[in-house]
Fold this sequence. Notes:
By secondary structure, this protein is an alpha/beta fold. The protein folds into 2 domains: 9-151 and 300-345, Rossmann fold, CATH 3.40.50; 156-298 and 353-364, Rossmann fold (3-Layer(aba) Sandwich). The chain has helices at residues 22-37, 48-52, 95-104, 116-129, 153-174, 189-198, 212-224, 241-252, 272-284, 304-322, 342-345, 357-364; strands spanning 9-14, 40-44, 56-58, 85-87, 90-92, 109-114, 133-137, 177-182, 202-204, 230-235, 288-292, 328-333, 336-341. The strands form 3 sheets. A 7-stranded mixed beta sheet has the order 3-2-1-6-7-12-13, sandwiched between helices. A 4-stranded parallel beta sheet has the order 9-10-8-11, with helices on both faces. It has a two-stranded antiparallel ribbon with strand order 4-5. Strand 9, helix 7 and strand 10 (230-235) form a beta-alpha-beta unit. Helix 1 runs parallel beside helix 10 (304-322) and helix 5 crosses helix 6. The longest helix is centred in the middle third of the chain and has 22 residues, at 153-174. The protein is elongated. The structure holds 6-O-phosphono-beta-D-fructofuranose.
Amino acid sequence: xxxxxxxxxxxxxxxxxxxxxxxxxxxxxxxxxxxxxxxxxxxxxxxxxxxxxxxxxxxxxxxxxxxxxxxxxxxxxxxxxxxxxxxxxxxxxxxxxxxxxxxxxxxxxxxxxxxxxxxxxxxxxxxxxxxxxxxxxxxxxxxxxxxxxxxxxxxxxxxxxxxxxxxxxxxxxxxxxxxxxxxxxxxxxxxxxxxxxxxxxxxxxxxxxxxxxxxxxxxxxxxxxxxxxxxxxxxxxxxxxxxxxxxxxxxxxxxxxxxxxxxxxxxxxxxxxxxxxxxxxxxxxxxxxxxxxxxxxxxxxxxxxxxxxxxxxxxxxxxxxxxxxxxxxxxxxxxxxxxxxxxxxxxxxxxxxxxxxxxxxxxxxxxxxxx
Length: 371
Ligand code: F6P
């Protein structure tokens, strides 16, 4: 769309796994778009499904009230993508149907709140469907490329750190090893940050493959020093050194890692934390328990830091849309919120560099990283 055409109506959708501060971000988009720039907003229900199936709801200024502290998303969400959409028993490319509905709704732009998969889907609608899209980086995993941080991360990290605090007292009382499984898909940001903040003794993240013997030795060492309990913060996507070698071989062969797309959730799998706990109990002789935090990390009231980030990103998205600046993701960079071309973001993932300063900090306070 040319920058000269006045933007009058924006569709807003939330896609991928939900996270805290989605509603706070919707609020910021609508309050700024409608309240400050005079642009109407329409809520698209359940992510890209709502666009394909033409399911919408009103998103007026009054609808945007009371959302700042509310968990979840009033728009509903899903991991569906227009280009591979389930219709009956078939998977069809419904891109054109989504485009038709966008036109029927008289939208001048589509604001998509989502993680890595959403960036890709929005980019697809832009390049293949010619839609005006603008995206915002959402996910507890903090793995969206191009932004310092995603909204939802701070809340999930706070929940996980508080869980570690609580596990400390019971671990100490029972002289146990406590493995706490933390979400994050294939990225270790959440486990690393919560682990350091919560004072975990061992932190295992996907980016640093671990050796079970090294972890067991660290726990036995602690025991010898009279510290008769240990907290192991383990990311759901961790890999042993052997698994990492295998994965690297597969990647070389060109096999796509199915978990590389955050909108392609798989069915239930035995958590690696359970295997880890069993092996640690065998190797250390210490009683070991597992706590999987799971979706608790995605629920409830967002922290003030996430509300601030949501408000900054959401209002900036509305401002950019009002000027007709589409085809970008609004990224948090220092104190600013800047537009980053979607083509730079789509298909990339931000993982923890093994030499990241927080990894160094963890090591310097004596945390075993498993390597
Ligand atoms: O991407 C967010 C996330 O919570 C990941 O941390 C986790 O791997 C995944 O979603 C879980 O997905 P689902 O809600 O489909 O179980």
